[in-house]
Amino acid sequence: MFKVxxxxxxxxxxxxxxLLECRWPQEFLVNLSKATPGEMARKLPxxxxxxxxxxxxxxxxxxxxxxQRLVEREYSHTHTVFINxxxxxxxxxxxxxATTLGAFYAEASLAEISSGFNELLKGRSVFPQDxxxxxxxxxxxxxxxxxxxxxxxxxxxxLSGSTNLDIANRLFVSESTxxxxxxxxxxxxxxxxxxxxxAWAQTHMHEVRV
Length: 210
Known about the structure:
Blueprint: E1 6-10, H1 14-28, E2 31-35, H2 40-43, E3 49-55, H3 61-74, E4 79-85, E5 100-105, H4 110-121, H5 129-142, H6 149-159, H7 164-171, H8 175-189, H9 194-208
Parallel strand pairs: 1-2, 1-3, 3-4, 4-5
């Protein structure tokens, strides 16, 4: 008996969703459902979704991180893939080795994405070569899940009630860089919100203060 495979595309772009709805069900023999970022948590339990595809051109990285964490925590048999993955911003914190199967840059054509998804269907992961290499380096560095000095500085700043902009100004970096440090720190200490990070820091910062 043929088993129906359910995928979900999470995007705010109706044009992209319409385009993929015309192509993917026939090309990959899957049932494709759609959801906006705000709808995903409600719609995901309705079907046994095997893969969630995030369109990062329409989803804030912080929200994408929260949604990825939701999949990690509650849907162990669901994999994630990112399309329109940012090339100029360090967003590797979104990729989880246990759940993320692939990522495609915004410059990837639909033909390249289709070829990549065929590889995913064969059980292989698909990442741009430069992203794969940087992830490998990070795996070596992060095996111990140790916070970097900068991540410790940012967590310490949270305890003083500083905003991301305050911290950025203090450390002479951009606000987006501070967000990246926070997301990486969140993953390492196992939290998913600013409040949880502050609570963790209140208990543990004496162990990581530099």
